[in-house]
Predict the 3D structure of the following.
Amino acid sequence: MPSALPSSHSSPSPGLEPDDRRRRLALGVIATGMLMIILDGSIVTVAMPSMQRDLGFTPAGLSWVVNAYLIAFGSLLLLAGRLGDLIGRSRVFVAGTALFTVASVLAGAATTPALLIAARFLQGVGGAAVSAVGLGILVTLFTRPRERARAIAVFSFTGAAGASIGQVLGGVLTEALSWHWIFLINLPIGAAVLLVARRVLPAETGTGLSGGADVLGAALVTGGLMSAIYAAVQPAEYGWVSAPTLVPAALALVLLVAFTVRQATARTPLMPLRLFRSRNVAGANLVQMLMVAALFSFQVLVALHLQNVLGYGAAATGLAMLPAALAIGAMSLGASARLIAGFGERVVLLAGILLLIGTLGLLTRVPEQARYVTDLLPVMLLAAGFGLALPALTALGMSGARDDDAGLVSGVFNTTQQIGMALGVAVLSTLAAGRTDRLLGTGHARAEALTEGYRLAFTVGTGLLVAALAVAFLVLRPTPRPPVATPADPTGTVATPATAER
């Protein structure tokens, strides 16, 4: 089904399109900046026990090392994406990278819980700016379908495998040096990204703030998303039917409804509702929300099972997760672009989700004293499904982006990712903890109770993936494939009526 939105596949004028070398460098800069952001989101998990010991965090306070970052990151993505369209996506990318790098240094130097939490909030602000516009820059740089598929595969690798790499790196740095270095390592990476970005990213001026600065809409959606994500992380500590959960949830509902009304009536809306007329764009965002919520159970709860039940150390936990990162990387960087070119995004997405259902399905039966080679290594290898699903899903999610709103569409896509993560944290961690507490209260051993709690979370995660598969099958539609190259068409990218619409 053609998209209701014009595609950005048409090439810009020859004088504006950078040469291949510069575009490859720009892709490297975007991927490296995104990898730094993604790594930081997962590198913290294996180092949190060390932070708690050194800084004197309470158990409840320790969760805010993650929550402060998540709230800032998730609530500002949409606003950052729109700012990229208005003042220039490259400018927002550079500013976000600079802020994230400075905040990383502050986090690494933190000597009190309050300083670390404040630095993590600033990291979330910078990370939102980088993430919101990175994909928008990419889809305007790479306009031909096949080269765009390869570029998206590289971009998706940073999200799919970056989390697992972060756990490896976090464990090694924490044990070899200290937890401070999981943040300080961002200084040379961020400095390198800033140095190259200013040279290779396209010089964009944007449409200007006067062309769409919906201040009221920005305030409503930022406040609504911040309240929603705050509410989503509360049940783990206070429960679902408690004032700390229900009050911000109600506030979020009011603000987001008001935002939707504002977007339907504003002359220059922050998020034009026409974006969601595209069946593939709307469906891809819903599928991503469900997938990312399930992904939490793999990335975080498997690591917790390795440490809390099997007794792995931080470094050993990271190394145990490494095969998953390698499998995802091999699939996303090596095969996904070719498979998408041959079979289309929808088919590849469905195949990837099926592999992921197998991944979490195996974990629902993980034994208390699991053996790594027979019980966990097959799970790590099946995680290659992320390397199939995410590039295909990203391509579908950006299929309706125009050049003048690619930053906004990128921000929307990343926002649904963060909402999915917040839901995964809230639902799966709460269910696992509740099951564990009930079993401990009836006299079960700690290892058995923890394992049963994790199994329940894996079961619910599997259900979320089944729902994602159903949405992908019923809602998403195949996108037209480009014509085969001919002698008169050496690039295979002639704009025919079939390829001009997505």
